[in-house]
């Protein structure tokens, strides 16, 4: 994987990453984030995979069902974020892939191998996005540090 710093302003960096055939996307992105000490960042990408495993979050079991995609696919859209958690970068990305017949499959990005290329733009976020464990879902979710608007409405006096 090759990377280049495209832009830096007020401590926020933008990188372009270019992956080559055979590279394992998820660990490579985590390694990149660790090496460059990335703050909370978001990323987008297009390219192609030789194979991938997508995930579907099962609400009942609170675990990802694995959806193997065992063929060459286009990466139509990949979007996600990298957030430091307990000093380690955590990647959360979703991807839509296109098959030979034009059908699309999508899900949480669990595993993917590049062929022939994947171009990723990584942008550090202006404010550090805080991520805290959410007990209801079992996921680490972004904590905006503001009250839930639904609760605010419930607490407001009834309209007459
Ligand atoms: Zn997800």
Which key phrases capture this entry?
about 160 residues, mainly beta, 60s Ribosomal Protein L30, Chain: A, 7-stranded antiparallel β-sheet, two-stranded antiparallel sheet, binds zinc ion
Structure description:
- This protein is mainly beta and about 160 residues long.
- It has a single domain (about 1-145), classed as Hypothetical protein, similar to alpha- acetolactate decarboxylase, domain 2 (60s Ribosomal Protein L30, Chain: A, 2-Layer Sandwich).
- It is about 10% helix and about 60% strand.
- The protein has 2 helices and 9 strands, in the order ββαβββββββα.
- The model has no long low-confidence stretch (mean pLDDT about 90).
- The structure holds zinc ion (ZN).
- The site of zinc ion has 3 residues, from strand 6.
- Zinc ion binds near residues 92, 94 and 108.
């Amino acid at each position: 994987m090759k990377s280049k710093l495209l832009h830096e302003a007020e401590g926020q960096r933008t990188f372009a990453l270019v992956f080559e055939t055979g590279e394992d996307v998820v660990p490579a992105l985590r390694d990149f984030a660790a090496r460059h000490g990335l703050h909370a960042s978001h990323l987008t990408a297009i390219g192609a995979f030789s194979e991938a495993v997508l995930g579907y979050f099962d609400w009942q079991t609170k675990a990802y069902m694995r959806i193997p995609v065992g063929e060459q696919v286009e990466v139509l859209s990949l979007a996600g974020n990298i957030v430091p958690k307990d000093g380690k970068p955590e990647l959360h990305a979703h991807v839509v892939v296109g098959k030979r017949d034009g059908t699309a499959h999508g899900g949480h990005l669990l595993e993917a191998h590049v062929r022939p290329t994947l171009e990723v733009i990584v942008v550090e976020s202006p404010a550090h996005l805080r991520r805290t464990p959410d007990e209801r879902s079992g996921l680490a979710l972004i904590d905006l540090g503001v009250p839930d608007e639904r609760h605010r409405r419930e607490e407001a006096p009834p309209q007459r």
